[in-house]
Design brief:
With about 600 residues, the protein is of the alpha/beta class. Among the domains are: about 5-125 and about 170-280, HUPs (Rossmann fold); about 365-485, Ribosomal Protein L25, Chain P, CATH 2.40.240. About 30% of the residues lie in helices and about 25% in strands. It contains 16 helices and 27 strands. A hairpin with a 5-residue loop joins strand 19 and strand 20 (about 465-470). The protein is elongated and about 105 Å long. Bound molecules: adenosine-5'-triphosphate and magnesium ion (2 copies).
Length: about 600
């Protein structure tokens, strides 16, 4: 590419920067509060708070990261978003050196703009949006011709100097100072004037075509309040704030590569210290979208329950779904930093979750779509067991691999619930579950459950109630599988099972048609073992932090949802679970 002479710091600027920072190396994470943070931002945080320093070999004590609200677009921003950003960052465990707002620099940025006007490097322009677009197209055509060695005056002649270089470009400094002040004072209507930077219409980079530094907007700012009716652009603000905050490395995503030139041009024009800009590829994940603009549409169109819907790739959605900061940060570490386009499989995130959760989750038996089982010979079998000194209460470790997680007891009863996935009306030699006139092992019980009769079915012909008997005889058939069960003392609950938000791996602009209509399946009559009673109480459900993880044996990983009102003392209220992830990779249907 074109050499950026103005990207180089003078030795004096470098020395001054070194003087201030000493051995400190500083990065920043600058989200705009125009939506909630998503997992792409988690990757950016991981980079700016950790990975970048690792790569640069910066000692932990010398690492500093500023958390900056890049809030220059008051129309799109809100206090709700400002709060959510802070909460998500805290929850992920990152500790910024300080929190700043670009808008806190509005006065300074205004003064810098005056400096550039005085240098003859900025001017007030009355061209409207479409005129600026025409100007830009023309400059691009001329640059293309020049690059091909053709004559731009032949290929793309300039019809009028009003268009290129533009009728306002060579106006007097006095006029521009006066008009810029009048813009600030609110003497002009929205859309009438902008402040533009006198850059380079001969550049091949359209981001050098006299970018807008200020526009008029009669909008209250969510952080700065009512003081301003002109607002600085992203370009005018970003590099300037980086420099003011003594940032060493300004890391952004690749689509900003062409903004590097104006970034340095502005700092050159203002004679400010120039941080080093690095671009990394954006994180993209299959079957979802990582862009606030598109996520907003899902929320506004009520395609989901809100920003924290467990199907959303937002930090708040993932948190509600049971993803911990350890899972998210491990995932970001594994994805790493690259400059190549990366579309990561959702399964990679799932796999990371399984690995972490298998070690930390507490086990419990549950049935999502329960079938009621009445055990006809319960009393007889239990009497015999008791006579032989056998108990019907079993001590079960909360984690089979980690004794320190303690244990709970499960007690078998004369009425049980099994999951519908463990029963079929018609048996099959390759099927190891329960069917009429067939036996299956019952986990912990150490004996068989034999199905004698289907007592009731639902409208679709699926069994809802069975009559079975226990078989603990010495010559019973050896079962090919051991199914889980819930005693009659189980707690009724609602279980929400999530699939992909979209049907296609890479959603397009026709995203509405691509939404997965089965992305949330609600099991409203689920039941769970009572051993979790205390554990799933609503008082433990911290609305902003991870809830304790459960593994429903043989089913998957679950957390208590924030919709829960369950009160264990009274054993009443609504108990809702979200499925974090299935136990094993699910084969696409
Ligand atoms: P969005 O399109 O989601 O609004 P953005 O880049 O406009 O993304 P910002 O709030 O400005 O969002 O982002 C703050 C920081 O997070 C920026 O440095 C940006 O580059 C980075 N970032 C945002 N999305 C991703 C992503 N998908 N992968 C990696 N980094 C990202
Ligand atoms: Mg942005
Ligand atoms: Mg954006």
């Amino acid at each position: 590419g074109r050499k950026l002479e103005w990207a180089v710091n003078t030795p004096e600027a470098l020395a001054a920067h070194k003087e201030i920072n000493g051995s400190i190396i500083r990065t920043r994470f600058p989200p705009e509060p125009n939506g909630y943070l998503h997992i792409g931002h988690a990757k950016s945080m991981n980079m700016n708070f950790s990975l970048a320093f690792e790569k640069l070999g910066v000692a932990p004590e010398n690492r500093r990261t500023i958390f900056r609200y890049d809030d220059t677009n008051p129309e799109a921003e809100s206090e709700e978003y400002i709060d959510s950003l802070r909460r998500d960052l805290q929850w992920l465990g990152w500790e910024p050196e300080r929190t700043t707002y670009s808008s806190d620099n509005f006065q300074k940025l205004y003064e810098y703009a005056v400096v550039l006007i005085k240098k003859g490097l900025a001017y007030v322009c009355d061209m409207n949006k479409s005129e600026i677009e025409i100007q830009r197209e023309l400059a691009m055509k001329r640059a293309n011709a020049r690059n091909k060695g053709l004559d731009p005056d032949v290929e793309a002649p300039i019809p009028s100097p009003d268009i290129l270089p533009g009728r306002n470009r060579d106006t007097s400094i006095e006029r521009n100072l006066k008009m810029f002040e009048d813009m600030k004072l609110g003497l002009y209507d929205e859309g009438t004037y902008t402040l533009r930077l006198k850059m380079d219409f001969e550049s091949s980079n359209p981001n050098m075509y006299d970018l807008i530094a200020y526009r008029i907007k009669y909008v209250r700012h969510p952080h700065a309040g009512n003081g301003w009716c002109i607002y600085p652009s992203y370009d005018w603000t970003h590099g300037t704030c980086d420099s003011l905050e003594h940032i060493d490395y300004s890391i952004c995503t690749l689509e900003f590569e062409t903004r590097r030139e104006p970034y340095y041009w502005i700092l050159w024009a203002l004679d400010l210290y120039k941080p080093e800009v690095y671009e990394m590829s954006r994180l993209n994940i299959e079957y979802t979208v990582l862009s606030k603009r598109r996520l907003i549409k899902l929320v506004d169109n009520k395609c989901v329950r809100g920003w924290n819907d467990p199907r959303m790739p937002t930090i708040s959605g993932l948190r509600r779904r049971g993803y911990t900061k350890e899972i998210l940060n491990q995932f970001c570490d594994d994805v790493g930093a690259t400059r190549s386009m990366n579309l990561v499989e959702m399964e990679k995130l799932f796999q990371t979750a399984r690995l972490k959760l298998s070690a930390t989750s507490r086990r419990a038996m549950a049935a999502l779509t329960p079938i009621k089982v009445t055990v006809t010979n319960f009393d007889e079998v239990v009497a015999k067991m008791k006579a032989e000194g056998e108990d019907i209460t079993y001590d079960v470790q909360n984690s089979p691999t980690d004794e320190s997680m303690g244990s709970h007891t499960v007690t078998i009863t004369d009425v049980l619930y099994i999951d519908s996935s463990d029963f079929r009306m018609v048996d099959d030699p390759n099927y190891y579950g329960l069917a009429p006139n067939k036996a299956v092992g019952l986990k912990y019980f150490g004996g068989n459950l034999f199905c004698d009769e289907v007592v009731a079915k639902d409208a679709d012909g699926n069994a809802t109630e069975l009559k079975c008997h226990f078989d603990k005889s010495a010559d019973r058939v050896k079962p090919k599988s051991w199914i889980t069960w819930v005693p009659k003392t189980g707690i009724p609950c609602e279980v929400r099972v999530y699939g992909h938000l979209f049907d296609v791996p890479e959603p397009t602009d026709r995203w509405e048609e691509e939404l997965n209509s089965k992305s949330e399946i609600v099991h409203s009559n689920a039941i769970i073992d009572p051993s979790v009673m205390e554990y799933v109480d609503a008082k433990h459900v911290d609305k902003w932090h991870s809830n304790p993880a459960l593994q429903f044996e043989r089913i998957g990983y679950f957390v208590v949802d924030v919709d829960t009102t369950y009160d264990s003392a009274k054993n009443e209220g609504k108990l809702v679970f979200n499925r974090t992830v299935s136990l094993k990779e699910e084969v696409a249907k």
